[in-house]
Every structure is written in C-alpha cells, then in structure tokens.
C-alpha cells in the first residue's frame, strides 16, 4: 500500500502518520485553492482555500489562525463532503482518530492551537450556499441531510456576498491571510 504523496513543493508526506516537519503552508494553500467545496455541486467552483479565508475572517481573534487551517488536512487527503465523512466515521470509528491525528500534525507544524471555529464555519457555509449553491433544502434540512443535527450555533450566514475566486487568487489570498494571522 502506498502511504506517501508528493506535494507541489516536492515534499514527501506520509498520509497514514503525518509528520509535521513535512508539511508546508505553500502546499496547503496551493492544494486547497484547487479543491472545490460541495463536491463541485455549486454554481461556480468555490475553493476550500477561499472558504478557509472566510472562516478565518469570521472567527474570533484567538481562533483566526485555526480558522484558516481548520480544513488544511484536505490539502493532503482531499475534501470529503460532510455526509461522506460522517458515513466513513460511522463505519470505522478509527477514521476520526486518524483525522484528529492530521489536525494535531497541522497544529504542530504551523504552531497554532486547535480552537472551535464552528460558528464561523457554519456562517461561511450558509453564505456560500446562499450565494453559490447548492440549493433546494432549508438550512436545517441541509445539516440533517449531512447526517448531523443542526449545530447549536445561530444559523445566520456571513454578511456580504461570496463571489468565487480563481485558484491563483485563492492561493494568494490564503497565503496573505496566513501572514496576517500566523502566531
């Protein structure tokens, strides 16, 4: 079984047991800028990098760095939609431990503390859906369809309009935001 991926900057990363020393913020920004949210089911491609910048902007000051990096493992593992992730964890609870190992490696690699960014994440998701799809369900139905009860945070979208960025702009804005929020 192959346990390694090769990154944009030429690093070799063990996907089974991530080594923080092999993780690079440039790889995170590059990959997340090219991964679409909602498994591509939106009006226009919306990157995980753009979502991460929005979450970071909406998070409280002490959580802004983790808000930017909360989905960073997806740069190495790909983006699993919430229903897919919930199903995989239900079928194999060890998947959650593996994802936690990744989040720990990300936090260590970049010197940030894992913090709750759920309210900011929900507000970003709702704004993204409002402005770019996918549509068809109420916000509560959407969360329930993802296999989770609606979060215990206000179901209010972020203010302003979410206009999808190009991959290059997403990567640049992600790195710019990192320079602003990094510890």
SSE inventory with pairings:
Elements: E1 4-6, E2 12-14, H1 25-32, H2 48-58, H3 64-69, H4 74-77, H5 82-91, H6 94-110, H7 118-132, H8 139-145, H9 167-181
Antiparallel strand pairs: 1-2
Helix pairs in contact: 1-9, 2-7, 2-9
Structural account:
This protein is mostly helical and 183 residues long. It has a single domain (4-181), classed as Hypothetical protein af1432, CATH 1.10.3210.10. It contains 9 helices and 2 strands. It has a two-stranded antiparallel ribbon.
CATH architecture: Orthogonal Bundle
Report the CATH C-level class: Mainly Alpha
Rg, nearest Å: 16 Å
| Shape call | globular
Largest sheet: 2 strands, antiparallel
For this structure, the CATH topology is Hypothetical protein af1432
Q: State the domain count.
A: 1
User: At the fourth CATH level, what is the homologous superfamily?
Assistant: Hypothetical protein af1432
Helix and strand content put the structural class at mainly alpha
Keywords:
183 residues; mainly alpha; two-stranded antiparallel ribbon; globular; 9 helices
Task: Write a brief caption for the model.
With 183 residues, the chain is mainly α.
